[in-house]
Amino acid sequence: MSFDDRQSLNLVPFVSVDDMMNVVLDIGIESCLSGIADYIAQDFARWELFDKTPRVAAHSSVGVIELMPTSDGVKYAFKYVNGHPKNTREGLQTVTAFGVLSDVDSGYPVLISEMTILTALRTAAMSAVAARALAPKDADCMAIIGNGAQSEFQALAFQALLGIRKLRLYDVDRTATRKCADNLAGRGFEIVECATPEDAVEGAQIITTVTADKQYATILTDNMVGAGVHINAIGGDCPGKTELHRDILLRSDIFVEYPPQTRIEGEIQQLDEDHPVTELWEVLTGRAEGRTSARQVTLFDSVGFAIEDFSALRWLRDQLERTGRYENLDMIADPDEPRDLFGMILRAGAKR
């Protein structure tokens, strides 16, 4: 009997934080990252089938709360996610999330999951999918500027998918760099803890910027980026929040997920609305070129897009039968007679 056949209509599989951690430990984080990357690549290859819209955002002076929906016509997914940089100072996560995967035919949910950990996995997997098409083919050294909650996931994804073995780490908070280095110890990396961002980018063929402050920032200046580098810019992800000096953008070939969203939230919010960019799905399907020369500077201006979350939820649901790491929640009122919802309440009352 298949996993789908075993599920009563009123019971929805729920993956808790504890379940998600055990999924990662059961499967192995490298296999999780590679698996999610495969699902993302599959879904980007059928990009034109998906509903696409910029995420719905509620901004405040201290952060943002967003809804990210999409559908391929068979399944529908959305993610609730926040971004509050101040939370770190209060002992809270900067980013938290949960998501739902549903069946389009009935409208019934088929999975509810935590997505704080799953988003960290899918963000790193997405970065590595892009870098496989855009980074120098012989790249073995990556700088990570910003060593918070996402940094280890980025390092492990680039190791698993691109073979990165050298890391140069920098954060304004030296304890964050020490945390990242300690967490990655014994995983096959040569790690250098750097005192300045300039030191971090020295010799790196890939530069990942993943800082959290909600402001126009200049994490990379133009003189720090040499020829032949791939920049994986993932920290700038809402209006008024960037990491790169504008001059870097002007001499880079820029690749994005969904231009209507990225022009509002990404590094390219600094540029004219008609500045040319290439959609990553076109590169992954061979409709557009990625890296074309050894001296080219490529920039993946990533803000995160709903199709990536759809892919991650789809991947996770396919692991449930294998891992058994979920519980069923009684989420859907499902009376024997669909029109008699009130009668179901009465009958329940009679049994009390």
TrEMBL record:
- Record's SUPFAM superfamilies? NAD(P)-binding Rossmann-fold domains
Which N-terminal residues, if any, form the signal peptide?
A: none
**Source superkingdom:** Bacteria
Q: Which residues cross the membrane?
A: none
Name assigned to this protein: Ornithine cyclodeaminase
Origin organism of this chain?
Aliiruegeria haliotis
